[in-house]
Specification:
189 residues, purine biosynthesis, binds 5-O-phosphono-beta-D-ribofuranosylamine, transferase, 6 helices, EC 2.1.2.2, Phosphoribosylglycinamide formyltransferase, 7-stranded mixed sheet, 37% helix, 7 strands, GART
C-alpha cells in the first residue's frame, strides 16, 4: 500500500513509521511526507531517507482550508497514494478531505480517547488526577479526534510527572503503537 504521512513539526511518529516500513514484510511503502509548514524538521529527515518531502504551505491559501487540501490531494493522487497516516499534523481537516479519504486515513492522538480531545492532553490528564494516560490510533472522521478507535496504549502517570515527562513516556508508546496499528490495518485491507 502506498502511504503518505502528514506532519507539521518534529515528525518522530513519521520516523517510527518510516523505520518500520523498512522491514521487507511491512505492508506499506511511504511514498511522500507532507507538511503544511515548510520549516517542519521532519521534512529534512525524510529527504535524508530518500523519501520525497513535500511542503504545501497553508499560508498562501489564507482562510480557504479546502483549497489548501485540494492542492495536497492533487499531489497525493499524482503519486498514487492509497492511504494517509496523520502524525502530528496540526491542521483541522475540512469535511471535504475527510470524505475524500474516508476509511483510508488514520490519526494518532496523545490521550486515551474519548478523553482529552484537542490540545494539552498531558497537562489535562495530570490536572484531573488520572492514574494513567496514553495514546490512541483512530479513523479520521468529521469531528476532531472523534473517529472510531483502532488501538490504544496505556502508561502510568507517576508522582511528580510534568506534562513533559508524561509526554515522553507516552511518546515511546506512540512510536511502538503506530507502526503496529498500520501493519494490522493494511494487512487486513
Ligand atoms: C504526538 O504526540 C502526536 O500524538 C500528536 O502530536 C505529537 C507529534 O509528535 N498528535 P511528532 O511530530 O510525531 O514527533
Amino acid at each position: 500500500t502506498r502511504i503518505a504521512i502528514f506532519i507539521s513539526g518534529r515528525g518522530s511518529n513519521m520516523m517510527a513509521l518510516v523505520e518500520a516500513a523498512k522491514a521487507p514484510d511491512f505492508p506499506a511503502e511511504c511514498v511522500v511526507v507532507v507538511s503544511n509548514d515548510p520549516a517542519a524538521a521532519g521534512l529534512e529527515w525524510a529527504t535524508s531517507q530518500g523519501i520525497e518531502a513535500l511542503a504545501v504551505d497553508h499560508r498562501p491559501f489564507g482562510k480557504d482550508r479546502e483549497a489548501h487540501e485540494r492542492a495536497i490531494d492533487t499531489e497525493l493522487r499524482a503519486r498514487g497514494v492509497e492511504f494517509i497516516c496523520l502524525a502530528g499534523y496540526m491542521r483541522i481537516l475540512t469535511p471535504w478531505l475527510v470524505t475524500q479519504w474516508e476509511g483510508r486515513m488514520i490519526n494518532i492522538h496523545p490521550s486515551l480517547l474519548p478523553k482529552y480531545k484537542g490540545l494539552h492532553t498531558h497537562e489535562r490528564a495530570i490536572d484531573a488526577g488520572d492514574a494513567e494516560a496514553g495514546c490512541s490510533i483512530h479513523w479520521v472522521s468529521a469531528g476532531v479526534d472523534e473517529g472510531a478507535l483502532i488501538a490504544q496504549a496505556r502508561v502510568p502517570i507517576l508522582e511528580g510527572d510534568t506534562p513533559d515527562t508524561l509526554a515522553a513516556r507516552v511518546l515511546t508508546e506512540e512510536h511502538r503503537l503506530y507502526p503496529a496499528a498500520v501493519r494490522d490495518i493494511l494487512t487486513k485491507m
